[in-house]
Amino acid sequence: MNNSISYVLQQLHDAVNQGDQDALAKCYGKGAQVVSTPMSVTSQDPSLQQDCMSALLKFQKKFMPDHIVTTGDERVIQAGDIALVVAKLYLVPKATPHALPCEGKRAVYVMQKDATGEWRCIIDNFFGTDLLDFA
């Protein structure tokens, strides 16, 4: 099985597009978190932080009926069993899936290699570098 970071990210986005919760759960490590709103990253209130599955279910409900997630270029900075990934992320209308996306986001992920050598996402931030605008 291919377990490169790029492969895991592709599996994650495919699972989101297909609404496959089991496949999605396999992409995340234990205790993984998602930055579900731009303000949750700056808040010390743990009730504003959501686990990945809950946050992504809300994302799917809001956006996935009419869109699919696609990715563009990515950059990986790896140090041992931890990797920082910055990737272009696009929401493309299902009605025009081959249209060129106008504007993407620079999503940020933190990946960790688990004890079995499998890469898993432990922080999912699809707001990416736009979080700087909310500081």
Description:
With 135 residues, the protein is α+β, with helices and mostly antiparallel strands. It has a single domain (5-134), classed as Nuclear Transport Factor 2, Chain: A (Roll). It has three helices and six strands. It has a six-stranded mixed sheet with strand order 2-1-6-5-4-3. A hairpin with a 5-residue loop joins strand 5 (105-113) and strand 6 (119-125). The protein is globular and about 40 Å long. The model is unreliable at 41-49 (pLDDT under 50).
Task: Give a brief rundown of this model.
With 135 residues, the protein is α+β, with helices and mostly antiparallel strands. 24% of the residues lie in helices and 37% in strands.
What topology emerges from the helices and strands here?
Elements: H1 5-18, H2 21-26, E1 28-34, E2 50-51, H3 52-63, E3 67-79, E4 82-93, E5 105-113, E6 119-125
Parallel strand pairs: 1-6
Antiparallel strand pairs: 1-2, 3-4, 4-5, 5-6
User: What's the N-to-C terminus distance?
Assistant: 40 Å
Query: How many domains?
Result: 1
Low-confidence stretches: 41-49
Query: Rough shape?
Result: globular
Number of strands: 6
Number of helices: 3
Q: Largest beta sheet, briefly?
A: 6 strands, mixed
Oligomer: single chain
Structural class: alpha+beta
- SSE ordering: HHEEHEEEE
What would CATH call the class?
A: Alpha Beta
